[in-house]
Amino acid sequence: MRESTIPRFVIAALLIAAAAFFLQSRARSEVFPPRLELKQFPTEIDGWTGQDISIEKDVLDILRPSDYLLRVYQNPQKNEYVDLFIPYFRSQRAGESPHSPQHCLPGAGWAPVENERVMLNLPGHKPFPANRYLIAKGDSRQLVLYWFWAHDRGVASEYWAKYYLVADAIRMNRSDGSLVRIMTTLKPGESSEAAQRRVMPFASQVVSMLDDYIPR
Questions:
Q1: Residue 38: what pLDDT?
Q2: Spatial contact of 128 and 155, defined as CB atoms under 8 Å apart
Q3: What residues does each domain of the chain span?
Q4: How do residues 67-122 score in pLDDT, each as one tens digit?
């Protein structure tokens, strides 16, 4: 481990340990607001038609979500596809929590090309940061947009997600949360910025409906 990464690692480890201790200490009185199951998420979104994809049991055993949506949406008029993945965790007090796609996708053979933070400014919601991740496998390139989502709040950083997890447990006595991941294949010659602009109308529709499935 490089010396420059040691302070960051120590801070993250202490934050995660403190979060686990605090959440366990308040587990008996946790609040679970009503919500719709993610399988009820609309299959028709502004011209996009979705088809559910199953996740293998061994992968689910690692992720351990309380509920999840994995669906491929197609826009037949433009011959475009978007992969939408939303794992939801009813409680994170026993250690279950969203996994960053940056940890999972390389294991599936995808190599990182670009990795940066972007601000998403979507109608009807205040701007929030997200991760824009460009990956490649052979001649195929995919844009991945993802962020952590809880209580109508989006954050890009895993560490900020842990901070808000503790803060919300104190303020609301809740530890529920999720991750939202949107993926699309880049067209020949298309930049990551152009691919992001292309999926933004779809992302805007998704965010506008999240509160019914991931309570505020």
A1: 97
A2: yes
A3: 3-212
A4: 999 999 999 878 899 999 999 999 998 778 887 888 777 767 888 999 999 999 98
Rg of the chain, C-alpha, whole Å: 18
Longest dimension (CA), the chain: 54
* Cβ(142)–Cβ(183) below 8 Å: yes
User: Among candidates 11, 85, 74, 2, which has minimal Cα distance to 44?
Assistant: 74
Which residues are paired to 130 by β-bridges?
A: 118
48 exposed, middle or buried (CB, 10 Å; 0-12, 13-18, 19+)?
buried
Q: What DSSP line would sit under 15-46, residue for residue?
A: HHHHHHHHHHHTGGG--------GGGS-SEET
C-alpha distance from residue 39 to each of 108, 121, 136 (Å): 25, 27, 30
Q: Is 76 left (phi over 0), alpha (psi -120 to 50) or beta?
A: alpha
**E strands, 21-110, where?**
44-45, 48-52, 67-75, 80-89
Burial class (CB within 10 angstroms; exposed 0-12, middle 13-18, buried 19+) of 5? exposed
What does the DSSP 8-state code read for residue 156? Answer: S
Please enumerate in sequence order all residues whose Cβ is within 8 A of that of 4, keeping only pairs 6 or more positions apart, or say none. Answer: none
Helix (H, G, I), strand (E, B) or coil at 99: coil
Can you state the angle between helices 158-172 and 6-25, rounded to 10 degrees? 20
